[in-house]
Structure formats: C-alpha cells, structure tokens
Amino acid sequence: MARECIFCRIAKGEAPAYKVYEDEVSLVFLDIFPVEKGHLLVTSREHYEAVHNAPPRVVAHVFTVAAALAKIYRDILGAPGVNIVTNSGRAAGQEVFHFHVHVIPRWRGGGWRRLVERHVLTEEEAREVLGMLKPHIGIVRKALIDAGLVGGE
Ligand SMILES: [Zn+2]
User: Taking the model in full, what pTM does it have?
Assistant: First the structure.
C-alpha cells in the first residue's frame, strides 16, 4: 500500500471524496475534474498500480461495477452514451497510479474528441449527481451477485 497514494487515502477514509458506492473490493466516487456531469471513478480498495497488475478477480469486480453504473446511466437516467475507460501507464494518460476505471456518461455527444475537455467539480454538481444515482445504486450489488463475485443475502 502506497502511503501517500490519494486513492488509498480515500479508500481508508483519510481523504475526502464524494462517494457513490463501496463494498469489500471496490469504491466509487466522483472525479473532481469531470469530462461530463456524472463522471465516476471505480477503484479497487487494495493498491494496484494499474489494470495490468491487478488480480483478475479484482479486475472482474471493478469492471462489473463500472458496467452496472453504465447501465444506470443508459437505461434509467437516459444518457445517450457512456464511456468506460482505464489508463495503464503515463503514456496512456494515467495520472493516479492506483487502478481505476472511468465511467463517463455522455449527455452532449462528441465521441473521443471531447474526452479531453474537463471542468472543476462543484459541490452543487456533486450533490446533484449523488441524488441522481442514489435511488438506483442497488443495481450495482445485484450485478455483482449475478456475476458470482459476491454472495447473495
Ligand atoms: Zn493506492
């Protein structure tokens, strides 16, 4: 575990974040420099540098959570598109060296070109996104159970 890693500190509750969801393996919170409203980061609770050295069960868990969040955006909240992206290595644009997957709802379109335009998350925007997702977040747990990644209740 990297001592000064910001995502480890968030996972341990030592640094603030707008948390959307968390379980034994993963944690979801808002990106503070979103491409679009609702831009989320799905991280592993344990520290792995990037997708290429995270264990397969952790990769499966994190991507299942990301897919369930994409489902909420597309099927329930009406986003016309969603990007699920992970960057491995500085050459690929990775900035925080703790495995994470971006889930970006695309309300305005623009494909790949607009993925580089980011803004600063405001508290008002964060509250709005948390309010949008909260009623539907049970879908994430259900997807993990359906995938056999966590036990049912
Ligand atoms: Zn870390």
Answer: 0.95
